[in-house]
Design brief:
Number of domains: 1
Shape: globular
Structural class: alpha/beta
CATH class: Alpha Beta
Number of strands: 5
Organism: Streptomyces dengpaensis
Keywords: Phosphoprotein
CATH superfamily: Response regulator
Order of helices and strands: EHEHEHEHEH
Domain Response regulatory: 4-118
Protein name: Response regulator
Distance between the termini: 11 Å
InterPro entries: Bact_response_regulator (IPR050595), CheY-like_superfamily (IPR011006), NreC/VraR/RcsB-like_REC (IPR058245), Sig_transdc_resp-reg_receiver (IPR001789)
Radius of gyration: 12 Å
Number of helices: 5
Strand order of the largest sheet: 2-1-3-4-5
CATH topology: Rossmann fold
Largest sheet: 5 strands, parallel
CATH architecture: 3-Layer(aba) Sandwich
Helix content: 25-40%
């Protein structure tokens, strides 16, 4: 069974790349969003297994979105992404419900199926 994933990033070019990468690895992208509010609504509507979530969104940061998702009825596995290195410790990420932080340049070499699978 395919892993259902939501892609959240304000850069449409990156969303295209992420979509292609996830599909190539056998995952199903259920929706794409450009901001945190849309991401929360999409998680409620689609109940994905995982969320590939950018840190820098126009309306709020990815950590804030991850905290909201963690409190929902069906919290997805969250992988935060950014072009920058993570300013948070592993404990801070885990407390926010984040499975992993991966810089965008390392996404290709990361086992996203393992990180985003239930």
């Amino acid at each position: 069974m395919a892993v259902n994933v939501l892609v959240v990033d304000d850069d449409p070019g990156f969303r295209q790349v992420a979509y292609a990468l996830l599909r190539a690895r056998g995952m199903h992208v259920v929706a794409e969003c450009a901001d945190g509010a849309s991401a929360v609504a999409a998680v409620r509507a689609h109940e994905p297994d995982g969320v590939l979530l950018d840190v820098h969104l126009p309306d709020q940061d990815g950590m804030s979105v991850a905290r909201v998702l963690r409190e929902g009825p069906h919290p997805p596995r969250v992988v935060l992404t950014s072009t920058d290195r993570s300013p948070w410790s592993g404990e801070e990420l885990a407390a926010a419900g984040v499975e992993a932080f991966v810089t965008k340049d390392l996404l290709y070499d990361t086992d996203l199926a393992r990180l985003l699978s239930p």
